[in-house]
Amino acid sequence: MTIQEEAGTISRRGLLRAGGALVVMSAAVPVALRTSVAEAAATGMPFPTPVLTDLSTWLTVHTSGNVTWRTGHVELGQGNRTALAQMVAEELDVAFEKVTLVMGNTNVTPDQGVTAASSTIARAGVQARLIAAEARATLLSMASKRLRAPVTELSVKNGVVHHGRRKVSYGQLVHGKALTAVTPIVINGQGTTVGATPKPFSEYTLVGRSIPRVDVVDKVSQKAAFVHDITVPHMLHARVIHPRGIGSTVVSVGQLPAGSNAQVVQLGNLVAVVAKQEWDAVKAAANLPVTWSDWNGLPSTEDWPAAMRATPAKVVTHASQGDFDSAFASAASTLTATYQTPFENHGMIGPSCAVADVRPDGSVTVWSATQYPQGLRNGIAQMLNVSTEQVEVLWVDGAGSYGRLCSNYDDAASEAVFLSRELGKPVRVQWSRADEHIWEPHGPGTLHDMAAGFDESGNVTAWKHDAFMAPNNDSTMLGPILVGVQGSSTRTPVGSWTGPDLYQFPNLLELAHQMPEFGAATSPYPFGLRTTFLRSPGQHQITFAQEAFADEIAAATGQDPLQFRLQHLTDARAIAVLTAAAQAGKWEARPSPKRDASTSNGTVTGQGISFVLRDGTYAAAVVKLEVTPATGKVLLTEVTVAQDQGQIINPRAIEHQISSCVLQTASRVLHEEVKFDTANVTTVDWVSYPLLRMDETPTINTILVPNPQIAPSGVGEPAVNVMPSAISSAIFDATGVRLRTMPFTQEVVKAAMG
Amino acid sequence: MAIELFVNGKKEEITSSPDTPLIYVLRGELGLRGPKFGCGLEQCGSCSVLANNSARRSCVKPVSDFEGQDITTVEGLPALWAKAKKVRHVDLHPIQQAWIEEQVPQCGYCQNGMMITAANLLASNPNPSVSEIMTAFSTSGPSPHLCRCGTYDAIIKAVQRAAQLMA
Ligand code: FES
Ligand code: FES
Questions:
Q1: Which fold would CATH assign to domain A228-294+346-439?
Q2: C-alpha pair distances (Å), A62 with each of A69, A290, A388
């Protein structure tokens, strides 16, 4: 399979402009869309919405036997494009190479929700599987008529239907025409229902194989276009000068130095410079004097935990069983601890970028790396006050965004549309590195008060986890807010608890204080320090506190951390991943800390273990590391992750996802913290906000626990959750010092070692 | 006077103003996609190119600093290999081949710079150890090469594989 553009993926307006009247669309475009652009524009609907229950929305079978499959989900660098094509080819019984995916083009792809929370395979993929099964049933019913044979006597191989020696190919049956499902597709609150039954897993030949990723060749040879590479005729380059403080508004905008080739645009508090040459815009942004109002509504980095505790919040009971209070009051002994996680960056290596073309007739084309093209389309229609049928969003590859472009659908796009409307030309907005570090909606800071009570023999009789969580679902886009067309927000983002509890404690209480955003109350804008989904949102922080505290209990009661977990778990899949990780990671069964942790080279070594159930996927990790007490440096030496994600679609892609989770989270745990003063974020680049370096890469072992009879669940996030506590516990094992506040930087570790 | 560069083997007369950082010339004026803008501060490595055969960041230094130099972007790596092997054409440099075989890219944004630094390393050290690879990507340049997607371990394997392919 190659990534080709089908006719329908090119902007139809673009085609119209390029080639005059474009009367009939290619057969690759669903029937509903096969109208002339001129005709569609005349009805005020240049960009109709694909209908989900129409089989021809999902796929086109070409005369050649090639299949175009359309999905509303997008490739975020995790191999979705390949895994989805595998699932579809499998169900249709065609060769993998025959399937080409069109992703995230609002003109032709169905709205399958946002690409986030490891949901592509578990939700969009399973939906695609059902619809592909229905497509196969439809093709078989056509073949049955053609071959005059009952469906039950037909077999399919590589897209050719056989009946005895007679055969007909899918391509011959359909030759590019629209398919109508034999049984109508039903999509409602219960999910997707089709007449056909998907294949049993025992018959899979493509699913479960490590098919190489189809996007990798193009990315390596630089044929793949990232959103940063998109250029359109007459396009202007823009740089936005963002407010100085989070709640600052424009006092005055000065003039560009004489000789500048850029132009200043001011729309309310959206201040930008635009130029034909990108460098002219960059220089102008640095040279334009803008005075902003003073705003100092944030607590500083040092003060935020106290400020968070002092802020009134809604308290939600996540789980409650037995009577924690009385069990804790009557416990023979108790243990309490507070954990803290910092505000973090998504840290896209390429900063936000988008191109928008708002035309005089009000129709809009946006090129974006958004994680939710349909959501962005609706958002843009709203902010420009046009109908959704006036807007097309064309998704393009971007830098790994990890939630940054998820509920926050794309700030740069929201700024570009206003600038393009104002200037009457296509506008490309690219943020500076400082803009991205300061203005991205960050991962939320959290606090966790933990308490446990024990009986005389050290059994846990009471467990409490009281979490204070900054929001993890801000969905504001800066453009309309700065311009002033969107005032107060209709919804207040909150921090939510994510994740089930598998440990069995007789009396348990789990509370979430859903905090508002810092500064939101005093800002003229409907946001404060924006925080949103960051890879495994909520659960990353919850699991850190939960799992590290489990280790504290094991240490306080002299138990082996693995045994302690196994004793309190009943779920067989949980036990299986923990056991597999312990075995492969050569877990030493003993209580922590280690008696003699020192080595001959002046370091101390330790081990840590952790477990999570994230969205149906079970993961366990064993971390081995060394600490240099003299410098405080922590170096991971070996990380072993065992994971059970049900059915395995593409083993190698899953292993790469696990490595990705391990390394990205090691970076978060050891190095990353967004700092701020009372006005705004002060970590503005990769020096003030460093990432893990290659010379900190551990050996990574991955074990995929097979469970083919269970539907596939997500693999992009689970292993994120097991890293923080495993690292914290391994440092404790090595040094006897328990670190409860992330990140565990060299300075922090050195100070803690005294 | 126009600044002259040799980009991927071709002579180019540059019309951008001389203070323009090289990356904007390569991307904006010459339409190349390989060098990626990551920070504009020489802090991430994604804009790396080979200039007279050594890895350089292209995001800060003006094009005038590169006057007369041979610039190679990832797009030019295959031709560089073809020249070294004295063949007319190859589709991919062995480094790119190794990157595909090891399935290195996740989002892929940083990988241009990674492959350029691999080329730089393998030119002077055809058989680097793991720790030499780590040093090359972590401490030898103006900054470490950063990847957000967690591909460091795959890059280490791919550099070793490329070394074998080039031997
Ligand atoms: S873009 Fe040049 S080093 Fe980051
Ligand atoms: S592969 Fe995404 S930043 Fe490196």
A1: Aldehyde Oxidoreductase; domain 4 (3.30.365)
A2: 11, 56, 30
pTM: 0.92
Contact: A349, B110; criterion CB under 8 Å: yes
Choices 3.40.367.20, 3.10.310.30, 3.40.50.1100, 3.30.365.10: CATH for A556-752: 3.30.365.10
Length of chain A: 754
CB distance B106 to ligand 1 below 6 Å: no
The residue of chain A with its CA nearest to that of B150 is: A660
User: How high is the pLDDT of residue A9?
Assistant: 37
Q: Read off the pLDDT band of A24 (50, 70, 90).
A: very low
Q: HEC profile for A700-735?
A: EEEEECCCCCCCCCCCCCHHHHHHHHHHHHHHHHHH
What are the beta bridge partners of residue B62?
B21
Identify which of A279, A351, A663 has the shortest CB distance to residue B16: A279
Q: In angstroms, what is the span from residue A232 Cα to ligand 1's centroid? A: 24
> What digits encode the pLDDT tens for the residues A154-187?
999 999 999 999 999 999 999 878 888 888 888 8
Confidence check on the interface: ipTM exceeds 0.85, yes or no: yes
Which chain A residues are Cβ-neighbours of B20 within 8 angstroms? 277, 279
Q: List domains and CATH numbers for chain B.
A: 3-75 (3.10.20.30), 76-166 (1.10.150.120)
B103 Cβ closer than 6 Å to some ligand 2 atom = no
Of the ligands numbered here, which is closest to the C-alpha atom of B57? 1
User: Does residue B148 have its Cβ closer than 6 Å to ligand 2?
Assistant: yes
